[in-house]
Amino acid sequence: MHEIPYEITTLTGQPQPIPRPVMLPDEIPPGVGWVTLPSGTRTLAYTQQPTTPVPPPAAGRPVPTWAKTTALLAPTIGGGIAAAGIGLSYAAPGLIAMSHALWATVALIAAGVIALPILLGACRRGGRGGPAHITQNITATGLFGKATGTINHR
Predict the structure, then answer these.
(1) What values do phi and psi take at 39, rounded to 5?
(2) Are 150 and 137 in contact (CB under 8 A)?
(3) pLDDT digits 0-9 by tens, 47-56
(4) I need a labelling partner for 88 at 20 to 30 A (CA). Which of 20, 53, 106, 113 fits?
(5) pTM of the model
(6) SS (HEC) of 21-38
(7) What is the C-alpha to C-alpha distance for residues 107 and 101, in angstroms, rounded to an integer?
(8) Residue 48 contacts by C-beta under 8 Å, 6 or more apart in sequence?
């Protein structure tokens, strides 16, 4: 016989158990259900839902060779770029001076290309109306003979 912790006594003196409220199935929250205890009492209790076993993680694929090579080359390339940047920072003053010298050379060449025809034209127009004609006749006798010549200006 099971014990009832609380009793209601009626006028007849007979103990009456406490009436339990009845819940409709749609009123029972998820995770709660009717359970029969070892003493035979039925009650509402939290129940564990049967869980499906978690599948073991899939075995990872091996890392491709190209990815390993790229991963190993990345620091090397980065170090090379850093070294080039440091080298350029040390060489910058000399490079700037060289660029100024090259620009000065370009300016000199451009000035020569423009000024040379102007100077030649001015020299040709000099004192006479036309260009000078010079004729020269040279004669020599034998392989080691003395050469003589005449110059004619017209």
Answers:
(1) -80, -5
(2) yes
(3) 876 677 888 8
(4) 106
(5) 0.29
(6) CCCCHHHCCCCEEEEECC
(7) 10
(8) none
Instruction: Give the model's pLDDT for residue 12.
Output: 62
Q: Where are the alpha helices (DSSP H) in the chain?
A: 65-125
Rounded distance between C-alpha atoms, residue 72 and residue 79, angstroms: 12
Sign, CA torsion 10/14/18/23: negative
Closest CA to 96 of 85, 84, 88, 105: 88
Looking at this protein, which amino acid is placed at residue 58?
A: A
Q: φ and ψ at 32, to 5 degrees?
A: -120, 140
Separation between Cα atoms, residue 109 and residue 57, nearest integer Å: 75
Min mean pLDDT across 6-15, 34-43, 45-54, 136-145 is at: 6-15
C-alpha distances in angstroms, 146 versus 42, 68, 126, 141, 150? 150, 87, 37, 7, 14
Percentage with pLDDT > 90 across the chain:
28
pLDDT digits (tens, 9 = 90+) for 17-26: 656 667 777 8
